[in-house]
Here is the input.
Amino acid sequence: MSEQDDGTTPGYARPAVEAWIEANIDGLVGPFRWTRLEGGHSNLTFLLCDAEGRRVVIRRPPLGELLPKAHDMKREFTIISGLGPTTVPVATALGLCEDTAVTGAVFYVMSEVGGRALYTAEDVEGWLSMEARDAAGYSFIATLAELHSIDPVDVGLGQLARHDGYVSRQLRTWYGSWQASMEGADYDDDRIHRLHDELVDLVPDQGPARVVHGDYGMHNCMVDEDGTIVAVLDWEIATLGDPLADFAYALNGWSDPDDEIRVSHESATTAPGFPRRAALAERYAELTGCELSNLDYYRTFNYFKTACILHGVYARYMLGKKSTEGIDVEGLRERMISSIDLAVAQAGR
Here is the structure.
């Protein structure tokens, strides 16, 4: 990330936004230096430094046509506001602008947090020692356990979504997505239909609803050099649901050295030195008291869901609804098929 302000702020009417910030957020004084931050689901995210050196982050949806409910900045702001007083590390919510006349979209401002997000093994090599990687693994799982230990009603998030039937609703949604995308993707796989039927028949009883992040991984955590998770980011798709489904998603994204099939060969935890999945599962059970006899079901469900999500994205590229510039479309297809392979292998356990 460069600290250079090149004057380019796509998606932001800079004078109007800066005026709104000065009028609505105490302690911030213009002029501001803007620095583009990468990552974050293509949301337009900038680091702002005010005239007195105070640094904050501003975030709005990407430009162009968006899918319904995607890139919901108000939802994200509400969640980090609710979690702010808890022990779950999140940025401090500073201000939400719902007046789209200011810059064409809802945006919000939050505190800057330290650390780095780790997307690839290369990111890890340049940031964490071997000892810190082990610590990062256990901090990662302890943070998720802490989130799943909070009653959403106690933090003002009880109305975020329905409290029951999370997995059944997800199966309905993502199987529907697969069916709707088959023609556009010009791809179908009988295994998806068999997996769907088996998963529907075996849905476990859900315990108390908890806030589920929906995309919890090292890429959405800010990690300091000692391996401590200092903040969890990207809460826009968080909802209320089954915490074991959220936990299994995090495990699926965690690489073990002897994995024969991987959805991604570049993820952060392909670097050596991280704890193994089994050790993380054991620690999660210790911290939450959850019984994990259905863990294979939840992991199968998440591989199935990932395949359906990738299938839908692949269909949009094939239909020309998304630019393929700089995108490895064939690699996306391979990741989708690998997710199905993993779902089938996990179901066999």
Notes: The chain has a mean pLDDT of 93. Residues 14-111 form a domain with the Phosphorylase Kinase; domain 1 fold (CATH 3.30.200.20).
